[in-house]
Amino acid sequence: MDRRSVLRGGLVTGAGLAAVPLLGSGASAAWRPSGRPVLTHGVQSGEATAETAVVWTRADRASRMLVEVSRRPDFRGARVLRGPLLGPDSDFTGKVRLRGLPAGERLHYRVRAESLDRHGLNSQPLVGSLRTAPRKGGVRFVWTGDIAGQGWGIAPDLGGMKIFRAMRAARPDFFLCSGDTVYADGPLAETVTLPDGRIWRNIVTPEKAKVAETLAEYRGQFSYNLLDDHLRAFAAEVPQVNQWDDHEVTNNWYPGEVLTDTRYTERRVDVLAGRARQAFHEWLPTGSDRVYRKLSYGPRLDLFVLDMRTFKDVNDGNTYADRRRGLLGAEQRAWLIHELKRSRATWKVIAADLPLGLVVPDGATAQEGVAQGDAGAPKGRELEIAEVLSAAHRARVKGIVFLTADVHYTAAHHYDPSRAAVADFTPFWEFVSGPAHAGAFGPNALDGTFGPEAVFVHAPPVANTSPAEGYQHFGEVVIDGETGAFRVDLRDADGTSLYNKTLLP
């Protein structure tokens, strides 16, 4: 039994995010509360490069977003930016792209919402901070995935999403969320009885009481997570890099799928995915509508964020011989190979929302991930990964490391052609982390095609172990600016290191 069977811009300096229309249709467009605007879900930042970053907020009504930016926490000499109009068409969320920032510095920002009825009537300000990417020197970041899944929502009397407190204490330069940022297909019950008799008491909103189908319900998945104090404090201090996996839409989805799940009245996955994608970009501090992208953090790190959903083929037996099929699609695959070849960074970290060598079933015969279950020559989606690894090997690309989540436990895998069914790739590591706040599962079986060895595994003894019982994980990477050494720590929800590995350039 694995985790898949259990079961919420604009006007900026320079060109940037699209402006949000003020007026929409329906009752939400007509309703306008009186008095001072309120920022309802805190502030977030994301996509922090050496010169730019995105700042996000949400108001309770139509208003204009205002942002101040300063090197100083007292905001003396702050730069003031008039941001987008926050309106119903974006669920009153908005973003401002900051430009011309100094590299490698801690910057402070302050956000207000300005009333459209009365000039100068602003919300109470909310403050945040972010660190821009360095032009030289080291980098520290954390990663995990799988938030509020398998029925385990926010339980304040059990400490809430405590893992975000531990990640915040690590003082990372940024946070990579490796997918399953929400569980849109995982309704919450008000109470769950734990094995020791304690009662887990979820905060439950109307949108989290059923599977998400409408745009409002998908928006509600993202807004729910920001009800947690630890996550909201973390988001105000640590810039995010977000990718999606399956549960932002529904379990194990792929384009063109038609659901048989009777909980859904809208069963066309393409329709659901469109709504989920809109909510994803509205409620997270993303910088563009494209999920796959490269972000550079000085000479030591290039981060390649993959999209293994939008172009995915059917979850069948995964034993075909057609190289045109796969998880990435032809355009993204060519982009990844090209960018790996031209990267001059010491380390090329590939953020994959599905692990490479772990067998991830979808039912009795279908496969959800890359591996198709035998140790022989590449078949199915393995052909696509083999092409990427082979091209990088022939171009003598060094320093590739894969980071992933998805399987709800933490592990360190080493891949080597001396153990593999293929020989034309350079040995590399894959580090798995998660869940952040969801049921813990595992471990999954390894497929030997690319010669993986499980050097470390930390998984629960019982399927769907609750966050109250441990087995929640995040990973931390520290790259030394002088030596280029790449240290990985696989940590538990309290921040204790369970395993570490240092890779040399």
Describe the protein in words.
With 505 residues, this protein is α+β, with helices and mostly antiparallel strands. The protein folds into 2 domains: 9-131, Immunoglobulin-like (Sandwich); 139-503, 4-Layer Sandwich (Purple Acid Phosphatase, chain A, domain 2). 14% of the residues lie in helices and 27% in strands. Strands 13-14-15-18-20-19-21 form a 7-stranded mixed sheet, covered by helices on one side. A 6-stranded mixed sheet has the order 12-9-8-22-23-24, with no helix packed on it. A hairpin with a 6-residue loop joins strand 22 and strand 23. The longest helix is centred in the middle third of the chain and has 15 residues, at 269-283. The radius of gyration is 22 Å and the shape is globular. The protein starts with 26 loop residues before the first helix and ends with a strand. Residues 1-30 have low confidence and may be disordered.
Number of strands: 24
Kindly identify the CATH topology of the largest domain: Purple Acid Phosphatase, chain A, domain 2
The secondary structure category is: alpha+beta
Largest sheet: 7 strands, mixed
Instruction: Identify the CATH class of the largest domain.
Output: Alpha Beta
The number of helical elements comes to 7
Strand fraction equals 25-35%
- What CATH architecture of the largest domain would you give? 4-Layer Sandwich
CATH homologous group name of the largest domain: Alkaline phosphatase D (PhoD)
Overall shape: it is globular
Question: How much helix is in the residues?
Answer: 10-25%
Mean pLDDT: 92
